[in-house]
Write a structure and sequence with these properties.
Layout: E1 6-11, E2 14-19, H1 30-44, E3 51-56, E4 61-63, H2 68-71, H3 76-94, E5 100-104, E6 107-109, H4 111-117, E7 121-125, E8 129-131, H5 145-153, H6 155-164, E9 168-169, H7 170-176, E10 181-183, H8 188-200, H9 204-218, H10 222-236, H11 240-250
Parallel strand pairs: 2-3, 3-5, 4-6, 5-7, 6-8, 7-10
Antiparallel strand pairs: 1-2, 8-9
Helix pairs in contact: 1-3, 4-5, 5-6, 9-10
This protein binds acetoacetyl-coenzyme A (CAA).
Acetoacetyl-coenzyme A is lined by residues 24-25, 27, 64-69, 86, 107, 109-111, 114, 133-134, 137, 139, 141-143, 145.
């Protein structure tokens, strides 16, 4: 097994990134964040990648947070640098043009929960535990958790987790919208790959447009966001893939998308 902080595997158009510090439950240190940021920059420029899966090495943990041993040595200046690296990495991940899917295979705490919040889709194993336990350490979330969590699950549910530091199981995470679906541990990766393949088989220009419009729209007033949608919808009518997709439907055959 490689000791690189991030493992990268590619299967046709699907790239799987695995945070690889299983002995520390995949806690995020600078090496992991820098490797992730560099890989995300490469993926951003790769039009052949249709979906990215993010998971953690080992049997116990997705990511159990930022590295507490490293943080315990920091003063405010170093902590700000660390938070800026975390934010820049998660912002870049979230801004990838293709969908990013978290396969949460165990502890998903603190910076790990924040990592899942930067993904478009989150699927969890039945042993997963989610939480923002920073207050137990005398801290608050530092990689976007006070903001992205409220946007995903609503402000009061976010406050419940951030203020109490409590951990929740996969079923509760699903009930509040922190993950879409829960699978038995042994089935998680197979199920996630199947979903990634389903997305990869759709019209790639449309998939990228749907992600981009949703992301831009969340930050805008509804009328402005709906205008983003109309423009993107209309723009797709100039693409080969929309003609092909609609033509294939009418001819009762499978579409052959060409990403143009
Ligand atoms: N940072 C550094 N090391 C960690 C870690 C973390 N976040 N989480 C676990 N580890 C290490 C442990 O220190 C331990 O190392 P050693 O074997 O060398 O002692 C190893 O991983 C295994 O952990 P445990 O023995 O504790 O395993 P457990 O099954 O008994 O407990 C756990 C698992 C409940 C996840 C527990 O490890 C835990 O509470 N971890 C910390 C979770 C946390 O507080 N995360 C938030 C961090 S702060 C943050 O993320 C800030 C931010 O927003 C940027």
């Amino acid at each position: 097994m490689s000791d690189a902080p991030l493992l990268v595997a590619r299967d046709e158009g699907i790239v799987t990134l695995t945070v690889n510090r299983p002995k520390a439950l995949n806690a995020l240190n600078r090496a992991v964040l820098e490797a992730l940021r560099a890989e995300v920059a490469t993926l951003a420029a790769d039009r052949a990648v249709r979906a990215v899966i993010l998971t953690g090495a080992g049997e116990k943990s997705f990511v159990a947070g930022a590295d507490i041993a490293v943080m315990s040595e920091m003063g405010p200046r170093e902590a700000l640098d660390f938070a800026e690296l975390g934010h820049a990495t998660l912002d870049a991940l979230s801004a990838l043009p293709m969908p990013v899917i978290a396969a949460v295979n165990g502890f998903c705490l603190g910076g790990g929960c924040e990592l899942s919040l930067a993904c478009d889709l989150v699927y969890a194993a039945d042993n997963a535990k989610f939480g923002q336990p920073e207050v137990k350490l005398g801290l608050i979330p530092g990689f976007g958790g006070t903001q992205r969590l409220a946007r995903r699950v609503g402000p009061m549910r976010a406050a419940d987790l951030v203020l109490s530091g409590r951990m929740i199981g996969a079923d509760e995470a699903k009930a509040i919208g922190l993950c879409v679906e829960v699978f038995p541990r042994g089935e998680l990766m197979g199920q996630v790959v199947e979903r990634a393949r389903t997305i990869a088989a759709m019209g790639p220009v449309a998939v990228r447009a749907a992600k981009a419009v949703q992301a831009r729209g969340v930050e805008a007033p509804l009328a402005t966001a709906n205008a983003f949608e109309r423009e993107a919808f209309a723009g797709l009518f100039a693409t080969h893939d929309a003609k092909e997709g609609m033509g294939a439907f009418l001819a009762r055959r499978d579409a052959a998308f060409e990403d143009r």
